[in-house]
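re: ur question from earlier - yeah i can do the single chain one, its not a big deal. heres the input i used so u can compare w yours
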Amino acid sequence: MSLKVAIAGGGIGGLAAALALPRSSTCVTLFEKTNAFSEIGAGIQLGPNVTRILQEWGLLEAVRQVAIAPDRLQVRSAITASVLGELRLGKAMALRYGAPYLTMHRADLHSVLLQAVQQTAVTLQTSSTVQSFQQTPQLVALQTSHGMQDADVLVGADGLWSNTRQQLLNDGPPRLTGHLAYRALVKQADLPERLRSHSVTAWLGPHMHAVHYPVKHPVKGDEWLNIVVFIHGDAPGDFQNWDRSANAADLGAALQGSCSALHNLLDAVPNWRLWVMHDRPPMQGAHQHALGRVALLGDAAHPMRPYLAQGAGMAIEDAAELGLALGAATPADATAALQRFAANRWQRNARVQARALRNGQIFHATGPLRWGRDAAMKLMGERLLDMPWLYGQHQSS
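and the output i got, formated as tokens:
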């Protein structure tokens, strides 16, 4: 008997889950609240831990067509512009981990996943939400915007403000981090030659850092520079509207004391968008991933600060693990399968969440901590920047 799986949310995590579930033993329905599948945001970094999964799914070549393989990660001081450390990416990273490090536009990754799901028997329901659910030991009863449906498993992939999570855990909204992100996409050809870049570059300064890397434009196909600047600041009133226009003067005031090289790049940006950052504390147990017949995936389970560039990566890892856990499951043992999924994922996600928090403290350091960070990075460089525990083959516990 096929396992009936309902997925709430049609973003990267939801589509990845639909794709990872075995086609021979599951009947999958995905509910997306908008009237058309789309992805907001701008650039995304995909480490080898993620591209390895995409390779296993047969999607790596499609992703390569719309992605860029940067040659290196360079860390620079936002005060002096000096290079603090470098990590070789490109061929060196692919040889080390068996999969490439890529940068791309989120919309392109979403499109690759959507096209792959559309070639399966997954039922895609747009303009449709899972409004509420009730579970028994035998099934999950869903109240959707189009009526009642039953499922053996419900997967909440409905993002930071997950309605599924609130019903399952009732643990309140995500927390404000006190950090704001200014982001922009700029056509590389419109920048002076000295400001163009084919690397991932991070600028570290007191109470701030900036990151930029190349991506292909999802419509025009030419090369653009994705730029994000993280600062400390108060959230505007409507902080759930995360994508809003931003005032360049406010950003400039927050970066007083930064080097001219960074200011020259930021001054070349015609328009900024503002992202009010939220997260949750690192996961405390498997129950935050699954209870009974309901599982949480991606930002619904473990929203994290983007200081490890692994938010979408952990959602895709979740999806792969969920596919393995439900691969041989029947309606009768679906609860046990979700318990295995949760047990195999929560500690990995908690570690990534904690490391992202720690990175934010290190990136934004002042005083002696900043001096020590800069000295250690200059001394050890690639040894500090490489992360075998993250990029290497992850084995479920």
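The domain at 3-37+126-173+280-364 is CATH 3.50.50.60 (FAD/NAD(P)-binding domain). not sure if urs matches, ping me
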